[in-house]
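As the next step, I selected for study a record pairing a protein sequence with its backbone structure tokens, which the following lines show:
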Amino acid sequence: MVKVGDKAPVFEGIDDSGNKFSLKDFLGKYNIVVYFYPKDDTPGCTKEACSFRDNWDLLKNLDTIVIGVSSDDIDSHKNFKKKYSLPFILISDKDKKIRKLYGADSFLIPSRITYLINKEGIITLIYKNQLNPQSHVIEVLNKLKGT
């Protein structure tokens, strides 16, 4: 598992529009939130996604982009994004390679875990909380604001 202070593992995947995505295209330009969640359009995952959406302007003002990752397929991501007007990228990780790369895999229920990567590509926050999905964006904003 990666730790705070580690260089963020670079990954590629397919986004909610069916396009190839590479984390390296954003490194050095933005702070990056990579959050892993269990499943599209479930109660907790919807709350988490909507909390990132509802704080989108604050995140943008802090030069931060958000990337949600789950094992759902592209069509599921596309529908989830449209249904809740999510302004950020969703990546399909059907084979769970990205989860494994970050150490965010688990045995039963997929982990709900958020990584904050600074503009230098270093992980500055790892936050795991399965039961309070809205707390993830709060922890990210606190870290970005230095509180």
